[in-house]
Amino acid sequence: MKLKLISAAIFSLAVLAACGDKGKKSAKTTTPAQSAQSKDENARLKLAFVNADTLNKYYLYLKDQEAAFKKKQDAYEGEMANKEKALQNEFAAFQKKIQAGTMTQTEGEATQKRLGQQQQALEKRHQTISAEIAKEQMAIQEEFQKKLDEFLAKFNEEREYDFIFTYLKSGGPILYANKAYDITQEVLDAMNEDYKSGGSKKETPAAATDTAKK
Prior knowledge:
Elements: H1 6-29, H2 32-43, E1 47-51, H3 52-58, H4 60-100, H5 105-159, E2 163-167, H6 184-196, H7 205-213
Parallel strand pairs: 1-2
Helix pairs in contact: 4-5
């Protein structure tokens, strides 16, 4: 399972769009003096970016969540495989009895109905599991985004960046990023330290789901 900074990427798009709109509007009415003032203000903007790929790969919270999620997913898959195999064996045994003529019509109809109900129950269980997995993925993403937002707000109290963007090598709103503005390692180290010290170790979505089922 690969978690991505979807919300942060959208935020960056919004920021770029807003900057683009401002640029278009000012182009119609800007005087030379205003242009000079605008350049001076832009020169004072303090920018930075975080590499989302690196954060997704090395942030300990996400690694722990991925491990817990995979464990649960493997358990789900094992459960479904066992139930499907058991049902297949029952169908095979039913067909043999029909072919051998050792089952009455009434028994055959009752067995066929029962196996059909089991098949429907199995399909319903599969749908339930798929919904639970999707819900848990969303909960993990939302919790991660919340942690990131809260951390960056605190992180930026001293550094006072005007904008912190997210950069994705696999694509995104930012096509090029000067490494001089890269604060990924600083953010990653600080977030991992906070997580290890217990600052972010609240009940995780995966743990909450397990607790609710017990």
